[in-house]
Design a protein that fits this description.
By secondary structure, the chain is of the alpha/beta class. Helices cover 28% and strands 19% of the residues. It has ten helices and 17 strands.
């Protein structure tokens, strides 16, 4: 996760033109995510993780409470962090206990009807540099130096040894095969699990700049020449075991500064573009500046790829560390409006109980301004969406869709805790079955308008 100010942040800022254009309409031309029944899917949720425990205690920091509480507050999506170093501690020997622990989390998710994205996570490559991700046995540095930066760990990505390790991961045939086997193992084990929506092939990939190459140029080259072929290899590996799940691909974290990606086409029919949504100044402690145009620049940058390659977009991580600064209420409102214009969904960082980045406190109550992420939305729409919007000021949601011409699969609505009034016209019927959710049954082919308002 991009938690700290990039070492080259000043260079990046100088290379990005100020953003002043209005962002409306940026979502036009971007396909929507769909489920196996062809319904349009919207994901609102959070990352869930345990970066502390390893070995026999791996994932013990994630409990059933995480999934139960997320669903109770209206969220239907979890991005689950898993680590290659836990899965394959020695070459070719996969941990059955770790797979079982992943499955236990997935079972909890299925119990509460939460969709899960399995994320192959890495921070600063892996344990060879004091973090999690790629195993030490798959880390090659050619003896280049590494210096830890305890107060700015993201700066460690710019250490020569870390950059060279990424180069070897992308280039070395045996490491390519090992990474593909790892994904075949995961996909083979969980292909038929009802909670699994898809697989995020690698978290926030980085690389090694060439001499005299500025950071945006390096990022686009790495994305074009190294990440694109890697994603095609790994998508093939997943498909050999799972034909239905979505494959999520990420650009480098530089996209957070409004730099369009250099990724090329991924030759798979079920690809999702999954950038992260972080601002380096805010991650370093600055307040949100509504007049800086950062959200508009980001929105234009991240929508270019899905428009060109006709793939859905889901934001895999977002949310600043300090949510109590004066402009953070405005930030969450602006961010939620932006995400609603173009994304099929998002996962905030992170669902945990306490301080820091945690969404909720020890008692499970939203921390400052995080409650603004909980709003009504349509989890699945059985038809063609004409428009969908939430007015944060009025507290009202409006969905217009053309019902599918055949069958009567329900449109499923999610509402946060509280008292809500749900209505539907066009001959549709609203059925309230459980707290926080409602089903809309529509006449095939009819145009339906659904409204959700605080009662």
């Amino acid at each position: 996760m991009l938690r700290a100010l990039l070492t080259a942040g000043a260079v990046i800022a100088a290379l990005i033109a100020p953003a002043t254009a209005h962002a409306e309409g940026t979502g036009q031309g971007i396909p929507r995510l769909t489920d196996r029944h062809g319904r349009v899917v919207t994901l609102h949720g959070w990352n869930i993780e345990d970066k502390t425990h390893r070995g026999d205690q791996a994932l013990s920091g994630i409990t059933e409470r995480h999934l139960r509480d997320m669903r109770a507050k209206g969220f239907d999506f979890a991005r689950l962090l898993v680590f290659w170093d836990d899965l394959e501690p020695t070459p070719g020997r996969y941990s059955g206990s770790y797979l079982h622990r992943i499955e236990r989390v997935l079972d909890w998710a299925a119990r509460y009807d939460v969709k899960v994205l399995i994320d192959a996570h890495q921070d600063v490559f892996g344990p060879a540099f004091g973090h999690r991700g790629v195993p030490e046995w798959a880390t090659r540095t050619d003896g280049l130096p590494f210096t830890a930066h305890p107060d700015d760990w993201f700066a460690e990505y710019f250490e020569p040894a870390v950059q060279r390790a990424f180069t070897h991961l992308y280039a070395d045939q045996d490491l390519r095969r090992a990474q593909a086997r790892m994904w075949r193992t995961l996909a083979g084990r969980f292909a038929h699990h009802p909670a699994v929506l898809g697989y995020d092939l690698i978290n926030e990939p980085m690389g090694e700049p060439h001499r005299a190459e500025d950071l945006p140029t390096a990022a686009r080259r790495i994305e074009r020449d190294q990440l694109t072929p890697m994603y095609n290899r790994l998508a093939d590996a997943v498909r050999s075991a799972d034909r239905d799940a979505w494959v999520f691909v990420e650009p480098t974290p530089l996209v957070g500064e409004g730099v369009p990606t250099g990724l090329g086409r991924i030759d798979d029919p079920r690809v999702v573009y999954a950038p992260h949504f972080y601002n380096t100044a805010m991650e370093a402690g600055a307040d949100y500046d509504p007049g800086a145009g950062w959200i508009e620049a980001y929105e234009r940058a991240v929508t270019a790829y899905p428009k060109e390659y006709k793939v859905p977009i889901v934001i895999g991580e977002w949310g600043p560390l300090n949510n109590t600064l004066p402009n953070m209420n405005r930030f969450y409102r602006d961010a939620m409006a932006s995400l609603g214009r173009y994304a099929s969904g998002w996962a905030g960082y992170v669902w945990c109980y306490g301080g820091g980045y945690c969404a909720v406190d020890d008692d499970g109550a939203f921390r400052a301004n995080k409650e603004l992420t909980a709003e009504p939305y349509a989890e699945t729409v059985a038809g063609t969406v004409r428009s969908a919007s939430y007015d944060a000021g009025q507290g009202g949601y409006r969905l217009v869709y053309r019902a599918a011409p055949h069958g009567r699969r329900p449109t499923v609505l999610s509402v946060p805790p509280g008292t809500w009034r749900i209505t539907a016209d066009g001959g549709a019927t609203v059925v309230r079955r459980t707290a926080g959710r409602a089903w809309v049954l529509a006449v095939p082919g009819s145009q339906v308008t659904v409204t959700i308002e605080r009662d």
